Amino acid sequence: MGVDAGGTRARCAAISSTGTVIGRVTGPGANVHRHGPQASGRTLVGLVRAALRDTPPGAPVYAAVCAAGLDTKEVEAALADGLREAAPDIDWSLANDAMGAWMGAFGTGSSGVVAISGTGSVAFARNGAREARAGGWGALLGDEGSGYDIGRRALIAVLRQHDRVGPPTALCGPVLRELGLTEPQSIIDHMHFRMQPSDVAALAPVVLHHASAGDPVAERIVEAAATALVEFAGAAAAAVRDEGDPPTPFALVGGVSGDALFRACVRRHSAGPARCLSWQQAQASPIVGSVRLAMEAAATACPGLIGTIELTPHLTAAIEAAA
Q1: Model pLDDT, residue 30
Q2: Is residue 114 within 8 Å of 294, Cβ to Cβ?
Q3: Please, are residues 294 and 62 in contact by the beta-carbon 8 Å criterion?
Q4: How high is the pLDDT of residue 321?
Q5: Cα–Cα distance, 286 to 2 (Å, whole number)
Q6: Could you report the per-residue pLDDT of 5-23, keeping only the tens digit for each?
Q7: What's the pLDDT score for residue 59?
Q8: For the chain, what is the radius of gyration of the CA atoms?
Q9: Is 18 exposed, middle or buried (0-12, 13-18, 19+ CB in 10 A)?
Q10: How confident is the model over 21-33, as pLDDT tens digits?
Q11: Which positions of the chain have pLDDT values less than 50?
C-alpha cells in the first residue's frame, strides 16, 4: 500500500500480492508541519483503513507513507509512534514525499533529480547510494517554485498595484473573486485569519491562466517560480554528481507541473550545459513510487510474499487510475 500525502491532498492505493489494485482512496492533505503528527497520523490511518475496507482481515499489510513535512528524525519518530499505536496490525514505513516522487519518476534507475511543484516545493537527487535535496523548507521559509509561491506572488502583485508602486495587472479582479473579496484591503485579514498555504496555492491556476493570456505580471511570476525550482534541482543534482558524469536526468512532478506553460518554463530554464540537467518525462507519479517502497518493505520483511510481482506498465496505469 502506497500513500502520497501532500499539502493539499493525500492519495492511497493498495495492491494485492498477486498484482491487483484492491483499494483506493483520496483524502485531505497530511503535511506533518501543518497539521502536526497526531492529526496527520489520524488522517493517514483513516485513509489506509478506508482503502482496505473491502479486503478480508488478517492478511499482512505493508504501508509506505511518503509525506510532506517528514524532514527530521524527531518528526518521523513522532508520526511513526502515532501510526503504530493507532494501527499496530500494519507494518509502516515512512519517508519524505520527495522519496516517493523520485521512486515514481525514475523507478529502478540509479541516477536522477526530481522536482516537486505542488502546494510546496522540493528537489531530491540520487546517484547510486548518495542522496541530496534542496528546498522543501515550507511556506514560512521558502517553497519557491510551488503553487504557494505563485499564489503569494500574485497577492503581492495585487497589493502593489493597489498601492500604486507596482505595475497594473489583469490578476487583480480574478484573484479577488477567487478569494470571495471585493477590495484589496480585505486581503490582509483574509490572509492572516482564513487562508492556509493550500488556499494560497489554489490561486496558482489563476496566475497560470493569465500568464498564458499574456499578462506581463503573471508571466514574470511564472518565470520566477520556474527559475527557483530549477535552481533547487540543479543544486541537488550537483551535490551527488561526480566530475565527468553525464547530465543528470531531471523530472518534474506535482500539481502545478501539469500546466503546459509552467512545464515549458521549467524545461527552458533547465536547458544548457551550465545546468547539467537532462529533461525527461517522469515514468510514473509519486503514488506509484510510494507503492514501490511498500513492495520493497514487504519483500524485505517477508521474502517470497510478493513473489514475482512487478510494477508493469499495466499495473502502474491501474495504480495511477485508482488514485
Answers
A1: 82
A2: no
A3: yes
A4: 81
A5: 9
A6: 887 888 999 998 888 898 8
A7: 81
A8: 20
A9: exposed
A10: 988 899 888 888 8
A11: none
- Enumerate residues 6+ apart whose C-beta is below 8 A from 286: 4, 66, 97, 100, 101, 103, 104, 116, 253
HEC letters along the chain:
CEEEECCCEEEEEEECCCCCEEEEEEEECCCHHHHHHHHHHHHHHHHHHHHCCCCCCCCCEEEEEEECCCCCHHHHHHHHHHHHHHCCCEEEEEEEHHHHHHHHHHCCCCEEEEEEECCCEEEEEEECCEEEEEECCCCCCCCCCCHHHHHHHHHHHHHHHHCCCCCCCCCHHHHHHHHCCCCHHHHHHHHHHCCCHHHHHCCHHHHHHHHHCCCHHHHHHHHHHHHHHHHHHHHHHHHHCCCCCCCEEEEEECHHHHCHHHHHHHHHHHCCCCCCEEECCCCCCHHHHHHHHHHHHHHHHCCCCCCCCCCCHHHHHHHHHHC
Report how far residue 308's alpha carbon sits from residue 253's, in angstroms, rounded to the nearest whole number. Answer: 29
Contact 261, 222 (CB under 8 A): yes
